[in-house]
Automatic annotation (TrEMBL):
<protein>
    <submittedName>
        <fullName>Outer membrane lipid asymmetry maintenance protein MlaD</fullName>
    </submittedName>
</protein>
<dbReference type="InterPro" id="IPR030970">
    <property type="entry name" value="ABC_MlaD"/>
</dbReference>
<dbReference type="Pfam" id="PF02470">
    <property type="entry name" value="MlaD"/>
</dbReference>
<dbReference type="InterPro" id="IPR052336">
    <property type="entry name" value="MlaD_Phospholipid_Transporter"/>
</dbReference>
<feature type="domain" description="Mce/MlaD">
    <location>
        <begin position="39"/>
        <end position="115"/>
    </location>
</feature>
<dbReference type="InterPro" id="IPR003399">
    <property type="entry name" value="Mce/MlaD"/>
</dbReference>
Length: 150
């Protein structure tokens, strides 16, 4: 009888720990959804290498959204990224979107650099000023071969 109670207590503790871990993991990854309202923007990149659905969208290093869709525009052959941003961050309409890297071994994310316009981007608008990913391999090859501008 004592063994059954001990097993039940240990099992309940393990189950509570597993549920707590799942809740924590959902909050850290943003799986539970955004905390408030979101609005959507689109950005077109020459190269979105390293960015995928679920990648962070950051402003001044702080996550304010995620990439919700990534595809190729058949007319322009550019990568089209749909961004879902927290609605409390209203960005000027001359905001730039850049594909940035967390470091040599880190992943890529979309960085937003706000401009100085008096008018804000509306839900569904396109960010006009974009800069695609810079290939580290190409930069190293240019450096090694000495074909870079001097």
């Amino acid at each position: 009888m004592t063994t059954n109670r001990t097993e039940i207590a240990v099992g309940a503790g393990v189950l509570a720990l597993a549920i707590g871990f799942l809740v924590y993991a959902g909050q850290v990854t943003g799986f539970g959804g955004a905390s408030g309202d979101v609005y959507h923007l689109t950005a077109s990149f020459r190269s979105a290498e390293g960015v995928s659905v679920g990648s962070d969208v950051r402003l001044a290093g702080v996550k304010i959204g995620t990439v919700t869709e990534l595809g190729l525009d058949p007319q322009t052959f550019r990568a089209e990224a749909k961004l879902a941003l927290e609605s409390e961050f209203q960005l000027p309409d001359d905001t730039a979107a850049l594909v940035s890297s967390e470091g040599l071994l880190g992943g890529n994310f979309v960085e937003l650099v706000p401009g100085g316009s008096m008018f804000n981007l509306e839900d569904g608008q396109v960010i006009a000023d974009t800069q695609g990913a810079v290939s580290l391999i190409n930069l190293l090859l240019k450096f090694v071969s000495g074909s870079g501008d001097q």
